[in-house]
Amino acid sequence: MKKIFSVLLLVMVIFTFAFNSPALAADAAKGAKLFSANCAQCHAGGKNLVNAAKTLKKEALEKFGMYSEEAIIAQVTKGKGAMPAFKGRLKPEQIEDVAAYVLGQADNGWK
Asked: How many other β-carbons are positioned within 10 Å of the β-carbon of residue 76?
């Protein structure tokens, strides 16, 4: 009985670490490169050249309900208004990386 319990516990630990691995998490460093190549034309320094009120600064993201990875991922994936959809241009993992980068920059004042 103890062996079965030990094996089950070991399996649970392995699955916990396998599915919560940092390697699976969004990569803000990769997101920075993707942002520079795909987003900076309109959003350099967290600004918005098309609509000056809707920047990527923390206050604006919060004001417009965009201060979450899920919201940013949806916006980048589907586009909205003047913002084009990047679903066909970027892979889902790349969009997650961009979202992680944007939130990190928003938290740090776009330095």
From this structure: 26
